[in-house]
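Writing this down once: the sequence line spells out the residues, with the fold written below as integer tokens. I am pasting one below:
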Amino acid sequence: MTSPFWTLATVAVVACAAFASRSRGLRRRRQVAPSSVDDARLNSLQNAVDAVAIEVERIGESQRFVNKILAERLAARERSS
């Protein structure tokens, strides 16, 4: 007859092995290779971000231009008065 210690130790080892096996299987399922659909969506997203970046750059340039014009007008007005 086996002692309760060895029975408990065996159950603990089996439980740990089952847990490790299950977690290893879950990790493998998560590491699926990206599909072509994901690549297409990523490319589409990248193109959209690039377009937004260009528009933001244009907005910044127009703001700098407007500020320059307003500063020149203000300086001309101060000189004439």
Observations:
- The chain has a mean pLDDT of 83.
- The chain is about 90% helix and 0% strand.
- Residues 35-81 form one domain.
